Amino acid sequence: MADTLDELRFRCSVCLELYTDPVSTPCGHNFCKLCIERYWDATEVCRCPLCKETFYKKPELRINVSFREVVNLYKNTNAAQVVSGEGREAKAGEVACDVCVGVRLKASKSCLVCLASYCESHLEPHKTAAALSRHKLIEPVKNLEDRMCKRHDKILELFCKKEERFICQICAESDHSRHQVVTAEVMSQQKMIQIKRREREVDLLIQDRKKRIEEISHSQKRTKENAQNEIEASVKVFTAVIESIKKTHEELVEEIEARHEAELKRFEELIRELRQEIDELEKKSVELQQLSHNDDHITLLQAFSQAHTLPSTQNWPSIPINELDFLGYIRTAMINVREFINLEIREQSATDIKKMQKFAEDIAIDPDSAGPWLIVSEDGKEVRQSPKKQKVPTSPARFTENTFAVAKQGLSMGRHYWEVGVKEKSNWLLGVASSTLKRREQISPSPERGLWTVEHRDGGQHFACMEKPLPLELSPPPQRVGVFVDYEEKQISFVNAEAKTHIFTFTKCNFPERVYPVFDPCLSTKKKEVAPLRIMIVEITK
């Protein structure tokens, strides 16, 4: 690798050969004297082939004697290495010297005049003999006969720009006499300039892609950090939920066991009291039996009053002894768990809304999409019902059968968020509409028809618009609705921007190439709505 770099320092950037009579231009670049002079003869202005610096006066060039001696020393050193035969035998696929006998060495140059290839040793006459020094030498190539014109058996040393092929001198004077013809060397120089330019373009493209890789790597790192943070947050939340459920269950078990123990004690106390009464009654039974066998009338009459009186007992049929069934215990515990989970959901909703607000969009309503029953403000931030039907210009973007209006901006990628004020509105519809929506037909909103929306009807209930509308329990009713679109995830979420709570999310949405924010301020042309739907400035939650 080092030897290759050293050799490149001694090669002319025009002919790509080792320098012959090297000269330096005022900008500091080196060229063969003959190469730079021919290059300038073929161009209108004198310009450096490498840095493109223009010289308005043709520079006077002088051979750099010291540098030429260094180049010649390098040539002689390489020639000596070749003559010594150090690893220069031609290998399979390499061009071999046409003069070598026996072991054929690797060719150093090919001569377009001799139509032969030479190793450094056999190339020496081309460097020393005056007649041979004018021959055109190139890097070793096979099949040199392909460099000859098939018709005239002459060297293909010219290039026809019109037909873009190599020709010989006779071809140039005959069939190509009216074509623009230049020497192969000049054409090579011009192509070399284009190669250098393209090389710079490729370098810029490489740099751009390296920059993209850095950006992607940075995004990968951020994505990994975000995923880790989300995992940690989820562990924290679900651990709290699990702990809450576990604690609630433990409390439920303790309460059931305490109630059970209390009932057992009550049962034992009842049994004790009953056994005590049995003992008293058994004593009374013995007393009565003894008295029944007494023949002494006087004694019988004297003891009768005491023996006939029963011991004090309770009215046992009035004491409840039903088994304990713990009615409602589990249900109450689950309600407590649900309340805790709802609290966690509200906290997560507030966190999610804060993240959504970072993707806030400057949305403006397109007046050309609004039908004759709607009025759009000049800044495109409000849309309200018109007191009467208006005359509006015909537009393919206009909804003629529905009181819909869409935003100017279409969404085709990424994440987007906007907020709409619905205060004092008894009817409204908000969401996203497909670009393929038919605007001259009456449309009932549903995802199947290209509308992902939430609506509020006549000051009553809220609904997620589907084939069968889904009622939504919203407390308190939203005064400011946030809409979040994640195009890649195919999701649309609606949130109560003031209460920081979730309203509804459409998932697995079948988006077309583009969707638009959609607004309906009245839903029905029969009911007059004075208050507008207003696109609000998003205030990011701290």
Describe the protein in words.
The chain contains nine helices and 23 strands. By secondary structure, the protein is of the alpha+beta class. The strands form six sheets. Strands 11-12-23-14-19-20-21 form a seven-stranded antiparallel sheet, covered by helices on one side. A six-stranded antiparallel sheet has the order 13-22-15-16-17-18, with no helix packed on it. A hairpin with a 5-residue loop joins strand 1 (22-24) and strand 2. Helix 7 runs antiparallel to helix 8 and helix 7 (184-292) packs antiparallel against helix 9 (329-356). The radius of gyration is 51 Å and the shape is elongated. The model is unreliable at 82-87 (pLDDT under 50).
Say how many strands there are. Answer: 23
The proportion of residues in beta strands is: 15-25%
Give the strand order, joined by hyphens, for the main sheet: 11-12-23-14-19-20-21
Number of helices: 9
Q: What is the end-to-end distance?
A: 60 Å
Can you tell me the overall shape?
A: elongated
Computed over alpha carbons, the radius of gyration is: 51 Å
The stretches of 5 or more residues where confidence is low (pLDDT under 50) are 82-87
Helix content: 25-40%
The overall pLDDT average reads 85
**Oligomerization:** single chain
Largest pleated sheet: 7 strands, antiparallel
Structure classification: alpha+beta
